Amino acid sequence: MGYSSHKLSAELKSFEGVEFQVGDSYKCPEDHVAKIVWVSEDKETIAVRCPYEHFSKVVKVTDYDAPPISFMRYRTKEKEIFAKNMVFMMKI
Length: 92
Ligand SMILES: [Zn+2]
Prior knowledge:
binds zinc ion
């Protein structure tokens, strides 16, 4: 069977008295369960990668549904881009 053993643990460590290690679970800034991918040497900064979607940016895209302004000139609309697996640097 090909079951993955890399399931994210829902158990989160408390803030105090625990040394964080790469591979541990931690909360991302939006309270999802994310995974620690990097710990600074002084253990005060960590990087977590979150598998959930986060708002990334707003981009302008051509709106083909709206009536064109003129021949070959289309309107634009704003589209929100969400990204998965974003990495956050966090002070702990
Ligand atoms: Zn997240």
